[in-house]
Structures are given as structure tokens and as C-alpha cells.
Design a protein that fits this description.
Helix content is about 25%, strand content about 15%. The protein starts with a strand and ends with a helix. The radius of gyration is 16 Å and the shape is globular. The chain has about 180 residues and is an alpha/beta fold.
Length: about 180
Amino acid sequence: MRYFAAVILPLVTVMAGCGGASNPGAGSPAPFGVSASHVFVVVLENHGFAQVIGSPAMPYLNSLATQHALAAGYFANTHPSIGNYFMLTVGALESNDDAFTATVTDNNTVRVMAAAGRSWRGYIESIPSPGYTGPDTGLYIKHHNPFAYMSDVLSSPAQAANMLPFSQLAGDLSAA
């Protein structure tokens, strides 16, 4: 399974499937004014909501959704997935071309987090090394990593260093 997990720290657990399914049984929204110290956005490539929530194949993610909060009703804006990653992190459809190579200079989550003095991390499956912004290599697929296109990341080694191998997520969670 290929997926991209972006974890934005610190700011409720949000789980969005790019498969386009909705969740008719979602719980009620959190009361206005409730804040959280961390926000996790987990994006599972090519998996709909029903394939994740309630699935015995994903017990850990389901335990997080049950113990914390789950935002439902999210769906893909476009296909292929690169456009959805940009919609999620930039708020604009920067490209629908998996061969996209341009730099994204529009406002984005990295810029907003930095301006607010907040930290963020992206845990990317198969990224060859922390901070890698290069092309596809091995199992790493760049168009599943929107951060690697952002001018805010490309121009700052400190911001680029926030893109980490997915394998580091569990250790970082246990240390938090």
C-alpha cells in the first residue's frame, strides 16, 4: 500500500481518505472553542473512508480515531492525486499532472505554520532521506509529497528537514 502521511505539529486527529467515500455515521463535531495541542492529517492513497474506518486491517488507525477525534466527510477534489495533495496543503489546484516539476509559491500550510511560530512535520513513505526534495526514486513518489514542491521548503533547509521517513512517526509519537 502506498500512502503519504502528513503530520502537522502542534495544533484532534483528522483522517481523510482520497477514495471519495463519505461517512454517514460520523460523530458530532467538537464544540466551538475546543482546541487541541496536535493535529494529525493522515492521507491514505487510493483508500476510501469505508476501507479504513472500521477495517480490521487497520486496527491502530481505528484505535486513534476511536480514542480521539475523527473529521469525516472529506473527499477528493480531483484526480489524479497530486491535485488533492495541493488542495490539502495549498488550498489550490496547482496541477493535475503527475509529471509536475514547478515550484509552488502560493500560500501554504508550511508558511502559515512558520508565521504562527508552530512546528510541523511530514512523514512520507519511502522518502530516501530526511529533507529529500528530488525526483521519484525506488518506492518514493514525489507527487505524493506536496511539501517537496513548496518554495518555503525548497528555499529553507530547516523546513525541508521536517520531511521525514514514515518509519520515524511511531518514535516521534511515543516521545510526544
